């Protein structure tokens, strides 16, 4: 996996099979149990494009909204929606695999593929606190191509620039500990506005930045 500022870029390698699976898990939460998830929605735009959102709540971060847009590098052959226990959802005793929109308190989606030996399937996923439309705009603006190695190299260059702002000398073990701590220190706060400048404030209203970058730590509440 690698990333741009607003887009995660995954790469999964499979054997030759007609049972390759990639799961979209909207149940997992930072507390591990998923109890903070209040509502989740998945919308299938086409066999390579999926959008949706999840609303979570906790004592310190009530009504946190996270929207996403994701694209696969090849079409999936089928999909299923599952409950937190892994059982396929059904509606009136009919499985909802043919639905293009699905909303539930907690939901996981399984996307199925046929692959050749050592075939890689890539997934791009962008997030937004404002809307699915903004998430898609983030994805298409920051990562319009499928060159995984290019994005990885660009991310490495940015991290090298940040970590080289402080130079220390010591034993390999001490240097490793220092730069690991410096790396973790730079993970948060994160950019909290979309490429068009919009963001959702603590008042739940949509605002727009003007000539500045908005950073925040409350996005951790979406995890």
TrEMBL record:
Gene Ontology process terms (BP): glycoprotein catabolic process
Named cofactor requirement(s): Ca(2+)
Glycosyl hydrolase family domain location: 134-212
Domain of life, per lineage: Bacteria
InterPro entries: GH-type_carb-bd, GH92_N, Glyco_hydro_92, PNGase
Cellular component GO terms held in the UniProt record: cytosol
Keywords: Calcium
All residue ranges annotated as the Glycosyl hydrolase family 92 N-terminal domain in the record: 1-128
Gene3D superfamilies assigned: 2.70.98.10, GH92 mannosidase domain
Gene Ontology molecular function: carbohydrate binding; peptide-N4-(N-acetyl-beta-glucosaminyl)asparagine amidase activity
Subunit comment: Monomer.
Protein's UniProt name: Alpha-1,2-mannosidase
């Amino acid at each position: 996996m690698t990333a741009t500022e607003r887009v995660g870029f995954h790469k999964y390698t499979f054997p030759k099979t007609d049972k390759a699976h990639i799961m979209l898990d909207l149940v997992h939460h930072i507390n591990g149990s998923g109890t903070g998830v209040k509502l989740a929605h998945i919308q299938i735009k086409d066999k390579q494009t999926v959008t949706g959102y999840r609303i979570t709540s906790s004592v310190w971060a009530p009504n946190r909204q996270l929207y996403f847009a994701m694209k696969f590098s090849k079409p999936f052959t089928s999909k299923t929606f599952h409950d937190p226990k892994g059982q396929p959802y059904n509606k009136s005793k009919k499985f909802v695999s043919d639905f293009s929109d699905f909303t539930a308190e907690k939901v996981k989606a399984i996307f199925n593929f046929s692959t050749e030996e050592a075939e890689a399937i890539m997934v791009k996923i962008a997030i937004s606190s404002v809307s699915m439309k903004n998430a898609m705009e983030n994805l298409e603006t920051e990562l319009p191509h499928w060159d995984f190695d290019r994005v990885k190299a660009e991310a490495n260059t940015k991290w090298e620039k940040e970590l080289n702002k402080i130079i220390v000398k010591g034993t390999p073990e001490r240097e490793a500990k220092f730069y690991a701590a410096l790396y973790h220190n730079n993970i948060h706060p994160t950019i909290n506005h979309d490429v068009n400048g919009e963001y959702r404030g603590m008042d739940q209203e949509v605002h727009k930045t003007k000539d500045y970058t908005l950073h925040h730590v409350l996005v951790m509440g979406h995890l």
